[in-house]
Amino acid sequence: MLALDIHDLTMRFDGLDAPVLAIDRLHVKAGSRVAVTGASGSGKSTLVHLLTGLERPKAGSIRWGGSDLGRLSTGRRDAFRARNIGLVMQDFHLFPGLSALENVLLPVRLGWRMTPDMRKRALALLDITGIARAGQPVETLSRGEMQRVAVARALLLKPSVIIADEPTASLDRRAGEDVSALLVRLAGEEGATLIVVTHDPALLTRLDRHIHLDGGRIVEDVRGEAAR
Ligand SMILES: Nc1ncnc2c1ncn2[C@@H]1O[C@H](COP(=O)(O)OP(=O)(O)OP(=O)(O)O)[C@@H](O)[C@H]1O
After folding, report:
1. Which of 15, 55, 105, 128 is deepest in the core (most CB within 10 A)?
2. d(CA 47, ligand 1 centre) in Å
């Protein structure tokens, strides 16, 4: 479990007058479940890229526990992400031609961290996520099943943080509800801090803090019962 602390964060892109993201201060308690909402262009994806270390802030700090992502080299940020952050994206990012199990195991294979225990955990996660045939080619799964494989993959290395970017946006209502329930339940069981970009009302009601972005700034931060 890792807490998040942001201080004086600014992200600018060349050619734009205003910063696309400007967050003076944000603290997210370890283990909490946070939604990020905002209109198109409000800075949600930029925030995800910064929180995962895919991009480095132009100014300010982003700390996960004791690690300040802005101070790490690209290689160290990549290593931090691989070790600590499970990512679930809207379009699953699975590899066709590989089975569900091979997709879940791909990141550890690429990182040369494959062990028999890892295979056992991958199979257990596929079972928990309701994927009956681990050997099924991933391109033959339904979209809801594909996203459940992506959730299993994100959880494989027991990440301290799970970040999901519109995880239900390309699913129908029923599949979206299944994925929402699963994501929140497993993050809770694993004790991970969960940050989800979403506009899905069914998913929003499962999260206990809602942060709303407008023009790259936090304009609303609602917690507890009021968030549901
Ligand atoms: N690499 C870049 N170079 C220049 N401008 C960028 C870059 N990336 C993002 N932007 C701009 O930053 C702003 C915020 O973009 P961002 O993708 O974070 O918004 P968003 O809230 O995720 O939008 P959406 O919901 O449409 O995905 C937009 O105005 C976008 O055009």
Report:
1. 105
2. 10
121 lines ligand 1 (CB under 6 A): no
Phi, psi of 175 (to 5 degrees): -65, -35
CA of 216 to the centre of ligand 1 (A): 9
SS3 63: strand
- pLDDT tens sequence across 112-138: 677 889 999 999 999 999 999 999 999
Domain 29-56+82-227: give its CATH code: 3.40.50.300
In whole angstroms, how large is the CA radius of gyration of the chain? 17
Judge if the beta carbon of residue 194 lies within 6 A of ligand 1.
Answer: no
d(Cα 228, Cα 185) in Å, to the nearest integer? 16
H helix or E strand, kind and range, residue 175:
helix 173-190
In this predicted complex, what is the ipTM?
A: 0.95
Residue type, 224: G
Cβ(198) – ligand 1 distance below 6 Å: no
* 19 close to ligand 1 (CB < 6 Angstrom): no
The model's pTM is 0.93
CA separation, residue 209 to residues 37, 94, 206, 220 (Å): 11, 29, 9, 10
Give one DSSP letter per residue of 134-200, joined into a string: TTSBGGGS-HHHHHHHHHHHHHTT--SEEEEESTTTTS-HHHHHHHHHHHHHHHHHHT-EEEEE---
